[in-house]
């Protein structure tokens, strides 16, 4: 963990592309990416840079807020530690699946923690699919269609929004 850099924390329910986004932002392969849920359990830290600003990026496990038992409960605890110290939180959602109750529950948890999320609508692989993002405005005001697997995850608008705040200036 880097104390002096602003912290961008990536959260979301299982298998929405959090680790893929982390790897894209940090230009690394530190997070394991697989279709199997529950692989990322602890926080994973990396560094990223955008427009001359360096910041810390934190990957978290898939959060299931209502599940307090066993491993999902520990993943939630680990994510809360990262969220509490975050300068900015990005909630990754699956554009193909549409908004699910778990997405809304997580967005509400983040707002209650004083960390309203930037919502990254993932799996929007083609420009003509960008309209899928509109259905996620119920989760927050800052909604961005991205493809974490492609270069659109580092789109200028998305990166400027997540780094262009007083608490995210390095």
Layout of strands and helices, then pairs:
Elements: E1 7-11, H1 18-26, E2 44-50, E3 53-59, H2 70-84, E4 88-94, H3 101-112, E5 118-122, E6 142-145, H4 156-163
Parallel strand pairs: 1-3, 1-4, 4-5, 5-6
Antiparallel strand pairs: 2-3
Protein model, in words:
- This protein is an alpha/beta fold and 170 residues long.
- The chain has a single domain (7-168), classed as Rossmann fold (3-Layer(aba) Sandwich).
- Helix content is 26%, strand content 21%.
- The chain is built from four helices and six strands, in the order E-H-E-E-H-E-H-E-E-H.
- The chain has helices spanning 18-26, 70-84, 101-112, 156-163; strands at 7-11, 44-50, 53-59, 88-94, 118-122, 142-145.
- The chain has a six-stranded mixed β-sheet, sandwiched between helices.
- A hairpin with a 2-residue loop joins strand 2 and strand 3 (53-59).
- The model has no long low-confidence stretch (mean pLDDT 79).
């Amino acid at each position: 963990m880097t104390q002096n850099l602003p912290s961008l924390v990536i959260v979301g329910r299982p298998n929405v592309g959090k680790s893929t986004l982390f790897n894209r932002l940090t230009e690394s392969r530190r997070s394991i990416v697989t279709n199997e849920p529950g692989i990322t359990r602890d926080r994973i830290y990396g560094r990223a840079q955008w427009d001359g600003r360096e910041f810390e990026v934190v990957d978290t496990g898939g959060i299931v807020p209502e599940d307090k038992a066993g491993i999902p409960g520990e993943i939630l605890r680990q994510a809360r530690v990262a969220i509490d110290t975050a300068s900015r939180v990005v909630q990754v959602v699956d554009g193909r699946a549409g908004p699910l109750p778990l997405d809304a529950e997580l967005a509400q948890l983040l707002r209650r923690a004083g960390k309203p999320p930037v919502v990254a609508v993932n799996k929007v692989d083609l420009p003509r699919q960008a309209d899928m993002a509109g259905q996620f405005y119920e989760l927050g005001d800052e909604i961005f269609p991205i493809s974490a697997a492609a270069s659109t995850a580092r789109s200028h608008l998305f990166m400027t929004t997540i780094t262009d705040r007083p608490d995210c200036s390095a």
